[in-house]
Design brief:
By secondary structure, the protein is α+β, with helices and mostly antiparallel strands. Helices cover about 45% and strands about 10% of the residues. The structure holds protoporphyrin IX containing FE (HEM).
């Protein structure tokens, strides 16, 4: 941890308390002042969304400090493009260990350099178009099974049910494993919950290093250990019975056999990464989409009409998707308002220039989709759910990185195609059979956890559309 440039502000530092210790002439970017040592940590953890609102008042490249780290937030699509794409080599992944926590450091999400390149190359074939298409039938079948269990008037906790569903789909498609059969699913879901709780920036634990034996940290470590055990068992079971599998795990393991490719640790970390990154995100997208449809009956009815017309009550197929334009717009708009991966983290590898400011090496950066996706400069009525806005003309005029739910550049989401298809096939299956009526008094409140988790459960009353 370096000495923060943003710890020398006044004690009265508050959200509205502007300080400009940077200047557009090439210094560190300006931003809100903070307390000695703590920087802006208290403002951030008290109200992370409000804090980002404050940052936006300082411009498109904003400097501040959290937990002793200099931080920069980027709020303009052109700067996002520079960081993720044009100058991608100058920006590394933000290694979470710096904040006292670790999750699968040798997996695809956090690996760097040659290690990352090797893993990405090994995993890529599992996400090619023809492969991903082949997963479609199972996505539809699992969604159908879930809908069949729901009776008219049942209450369902969407974030839980969708998490079970997406984990089941992912484990089946990429690891040829039935997570329901042997209780592994529970260890994985619990670890994902703990990881989210641990990372929630508004919780007191977010900035306490992992080695401090708080009850939350102990729970987190135990859950991580169980998750790792579940993955070790999965790998051991496959090693004992390697024949007849042609999935992501087979690709990753085959690479290790000739002495090239992955160590056991990398294999475990990458498997952990896929199991986590590949199910929580899509589950959140389903949860928020169901909520948005429940609150917008006009959109829901139009979507139902499109599905009924195109599918006539039958199971959707990958080949049906190109005809489902409105479903595509609904998913796009939902990922705009509630991007499950709500912020992209980077760290400068060398001094860089961005937006007229100088940013030293080792500065942490955030590129917040949740904020840029709701910027009135790019979106009319930015908080409104309006799938209709996604016309060809609108997209042609939209700056490239005003919308980036799956990131961009070399580290963009490897599962993007898989996730988009899953989202659409699951929705097309469910919405032909059920309606979701939201039963909460308040809209779901997204939290800044490891993903954009709602605070508490998102519960719906299910209404069956067919007999
Ligand atoms: C709606 C669902 C999803 C969203 C919004 C999402 C979003 C993202 C984003 C924004 C990144 C880039 C992170 C960065 O640049 O630091 C990313 C990376 C990644 N995602 Fe996804 N993702 C989703 C689904 C999936 C699925 C289904 C899988 C796997 C099957 C997956 C696996 C990964 C992996 C392994 C990476 C790291 C890639 C690399 O660094 O090379 N994601 N995802």
């Amino acid at each position: 941890m370096g000495t923060s440039r943003h710890t020398g502000g006044s004690d009265a530092a508050d959200e509205g308390d502007a300080e400009s210790d940077g200047d557009a002439g090439g210094g560190f970017p300006p931003g809100p002042s903070g307390l000695p040592l703590l920087g802006n940590t208290h403002q951030f953890s008290r109200d992370p969304h409000g804090f980002y609102e404050t940052l936006a008042g300082y411009g498109d490249v904003v400097g501040y400090s959290v937990a002793g780290q200099d931080m920069v937030t980027v709020l303009h699509p052109d700067h996002v493009e520079r960081v993720l794409v044009t100058d991608a080599d100058s920006y590394g992944k933000w290694q979470l260990q710096n904040f006292g926590t670790s999750f699968a450091p040798n997996g695809l999400l956090f690996a760097e350099g040659e290690q990352w390149r090797t893993q990405r190359t090994l995993a890529q074939p599992a996400f090619q178009l023809d492969r991903v298409r082949a997963y479609g039938d199972r996505m539809t079948a699992f969604a159908h099974e879930m809908a069949a269990e729901w009776g008219d008037g049942d209450r369902v906790v969407a974030n839980e049910r969708f998490s079970d569903l997406t984990l089941r789909i992912l484990a089946d498609s990429l690891f040829d494993v039935d997570v329901d059969a042997d209780g592994r699913g529970e260890a994985i879901t619990r670890a994902a919950d703990e990881l989210n709780r641990r990372a929630d920036s508004s919780s007191a634990t977010a900035f306490v290093p992992e080695w401090v034996p708080t009850p939350a940290n102990r729970r987190f470590k135990r859950a991580q250990a169980d998750f790792a055990d579940a993955v070790d068992e999965l790998i051991a079971a496959r090693r004992a019975d390697p024949e007849g599998h042609d999935d992501l795990l087979a690709m990753l393991m085959a690479a290790g056999e000739d002495g090239e490719g992955m160590s056991d640790e990398e294999l475990r970390d990458t498997t952990l990464t896929f199991l986590f990154a590949g199910h929580e995100t899509t589950s959140l997208a389903l949860t928020y989409t169901a909520y948005l449809l429940a609150e917008h009956p006009d959109v829901r009815e139009r979507l139902e009409a499109e599905l009924d017309d195109a599918l006539g009550g039958g199971p959707p197929d990958v080949l049906d998707l190109p005809a489902l334009d409105y479903l595509d717009s609904v998913c796009r708009e939902s990922l705009r308002l509630y991007p499950p991966a709500y912020v992209i983290f980077r760290e400068t590898r060398e001094p860089v220039e961005l937006g007229g400011y100088r940013i030293p090496a080792d500065t942490k950066m955030t590129l917040p989709q949740f904020k840029i996706h709701r910027d009135g400069r790019w979106y009319d009525d930015p908080d409104a759910f309006r799938p209709d806005r996604w016309t060809d003309e609108f997209e042609a005029d939209l700056p490239d990185y005003a919308y980036f739910p799956f990131g961009g550049g070399p580290r963009h989401c490897i599962g993007m195609r898989f996730a988009r298809m899953e989202l659409k096939l699951v929705l097309a299956t469910l919405l032909q059979r059920v309606r979701f009526d939201y039963v909460g008094d308040e809209p779901p409140q997204p939290t800044m956890a490891a993903s954009y988790q709602p605070e508490g459960d998102v519960t719906f009353r299910v209404e069956r559309r067919e007999g």
